[in-house]
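tool_call: predict_structure(chain=1)
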Amino acid sequence: MSGWYSVCMLFEAEVDDRSSEEPLCEESIRLVKAADVDAARMAAESLGAELEHAYSGSDGNTVRWVFRGIVELQDLCESEIVSGTEVFSRMFKKGQLDR
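tool_result:
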């Protein structure tokens, strides 16, 4: 039986293939349905590659968003997604909040 997984994916912007000391990054949390955690990881890797894209920036440079990998993968322990379903959580000590 398949279930739902949340995957936190990391993307990084490249401008005209130049590296930057502090590149712009994006974490994106997506849902995937899969038979098990290994299948979910494979589906997430494939999705990450599909979501890569490029466009011309306002200054004429090419901006390319590159999939850098999976930050975290969580089994939602749900076979069906409904309103109010938790899709991501993390535990931390109050002084460790970094967001």
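agent: The chain has one domain: 3-84. Proceeding to next step.
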